[in-house]
Design a protein that fits this description.
By secondary structure, this protein is of the alpha+beta class. The protein has two domains: 111 residues, D-amino Acid Aminotransferase, Chain A, domain 1, CATH 3.30.470.10; 156 residues, D-amino Acid Aminotransferase, subunit A, domain 2 (D-amino Acid Aminotransferase, Chain A, domain 2, Alpha-Beta Barrel), CATH 3.20.10. It has eight helices and 15 strands. Strands 7, 8, 9, 10, 11, 12, 13, 14 and 15 form a nine-stranded mixed sheet that branches. Strands 2-1-6-5-3-4 form a six-stranded antiparallel sheet. The longest helix has 19 residues. Bound molecules: 4'-deoxy-4'-aminopyridoxal-5'-phosphate. The site of 4'-deoxy-4'-aminopyridoxal-5'-phosphate has 14 residues, from helix 6 and strand 13.
Length: 278
């Protein structure tokens, strides 16, 4: 059987899903999305991701054209039929086909279920490096589809041997393009809250942090503090807890993956296993 996806109420093969050239998501960037993973057809933190999807849509004034129940049923049906060992669920909601190239129309919504793999093991054992860049996202609390700055920078950071880009405003760090960022300083775990996407992985790491012996500090932190950290890591659905050992040309501490980050990586992976077994 062909893999199925969902588009405006119908189940279709991916090739048959067509967004219009009049879609204001494409024309004016008026669109949001959501992304989460599933292992052997079991979605991970689906409730939290659907909550955030609703919040992103509300922040942009987009109306979700299906009920929560209908969306959940569609996702579970796709996961069952497509039967991938590891897959991603991507929900896309656009402002719809515009009558005049600017005004929003009736929203278009797709849910894709795409086979994927986990990130390379080496990233976790060796850590990764990121390139710093001065940039602020326009709607930081919403998961909009506008990653134009990051996509434009990709060839640059790849050529310099980095895995991603770390955004700051000249002083304060916000995020990595697709991840939240944490600083470890002694027993303190520091992460920002304002002006960043409320990451689902971030929220789970914050719950785990006291168990791993951290004192939490939720506050803005500067690029200077990040560079002077004992350990630095990022979190996201795709990367989970991933150590950052270098920013531009500067090593973080001795450039090795730190013990605390390792503990959190293990605790988070265990949390996912628990979720899948529950
Ligand atoms: N910030 C941004 C800008 C992102 O795109 C993502 C990925 N969704 C994150 C942070 C991390 O969020 P999550 O842990 O929910 O994947």
């Amino acid at each position: 059987m062909q893999p199925i996806h969902f588009f405006n109420g119908q189940f279709l093969p991916k090739e048959e899903i067509k967004f219009s050239v009049d879609d204001v998501g494409l024309l004016r960037g008026y669109s949001v999305f959501e992304y989460f993973k599933a292992y052997k057809g079991i979605p991970v933190f689906m409730k939290e991701h659907l909550n955030r999807f609703e919040n992103s849509a509300a922040l942009l004034g987009l109306k979700i054209p299906f009920t929560r129940l209908k969306i959940e049923e569609a996702i579970l049906r796709m996961l069952k039929q497509n039967n991938y060992p590891i897959s991603g669920i991507k929900i896309l909601l656009t402002g719809g086909n515009s009558p005049n190239g600017f005004s929003a129309g009736k929203p278009n919504m797709a849910i894709l279920n795409l086979e994927t793999e986990d990130s390379e093991k080496e990233f976790y054992s060796q850590g990764v490096s990121v390139m710093s860049h001065n940039f602020n996202r326009e709607f930081p609390l919403a998961k909009t589809t506008n990653y134009a700055t990051a996509v434009k920078l990709e060839s640059d950071w790849k050529q310099k041997g980095h895995l991603d880009v770390l955004y700051h405003d000249g002083r304060w760090v916000s995020e990595v393009a697709r991840s939240n960022v944490f600083v470890v300083l002694g027993d303190k775990l520091i992460t920002n809250q304002e002006g960043v996407l409320p990451g689902i992985t971030r929220s789970k790491v914050l719950e785990l942090a006291p168990e791993v012996g951290f004192d939490l500090e939720i506050r803005p932190f500067s690029l200077e503090e990040a560079l002077a950290a004992d350990e630095l890591f990022m979190t996201s659905t795709n990367k989970r807890v991933m150590p950052i050992v270098k920013v531009d040309d500067q090593l973080i501490a001795n450039g090795m993956v730190g013990a605390k980050t390792r503990q959190l990586m293990e605790a988070f992976d265990q949390l996912i296993r628990n979720e899948l077994n529950s």
